[in-house]
Amino acid sequence: MDLNLSDEQRLLRESAERFVAESYDADHRRKMANDPLGFSPLVWKQFAELGWLALPIAEEFGGLGGGAVDVGILMEAFGRGLVSEPYVATVVLGAALIARCGTTEQKQASLPKVADGSLKLALAHSERAARFDLAKVAMVADKTAQGWRLSGSKIAVLDGHAADEIIVSAHVHDHRGPSGRIGLFLVPATTPSIAISDYQRLGGGRACNIELCDVHLPEDALLGDGSDALPAIEWAVDRAMAALGAEAVGIMQTLLDTTLEYTKIRKQFGRPLSANQVIRHRLADMAMQVDEARSMALRAALKADADPVERARAASGAKAKIGKCARFVGEQSIQLHGGMGVTEELEVGAYFKRLVAFDTLFGGSAHHYARHAELGRTKAPA
Amino acid sequence: MDLSFNAEERAFQDEVRGFIAKNLTEEMKRATALTPSVFSDPDIGMAWQRALHKQGWGAPGWPVEYGGPDWTPAQRWIFETECARAGVPNVNVMGVKMVGPVIIGFGSPEQKNFYLPRILSGEDYWCQGYSEPGSGSDLSSLKTRAVRDGDDYVINGTKIWTTHAHHANRMFALVRTSDGPRQQDGISFILIDMKTPGITTRPILTIGGDHEVNQVFFDDVRVPVANRVGEEGKGWTYGKYLLEFERGSGIASAKLREGLKAVADLAESDLTGRAIDSPDIAARISEVEIDIDALEMTELRVLSALQTGQNPGAVSSILKLRNSEIRQAVTRLGADVIGHDALAVEPMRPLYKLNHEPAIPEEMLTVMPEYLNGRAYTIFGGTSEIQRDIIAKMMLGI
Question: Which fold does the domain B250-395 belong to in CATH?
Answer without folding.
Answer: Butyryl-CoA Dehydrogenase, subunit A; domain 3 (1.20.140)
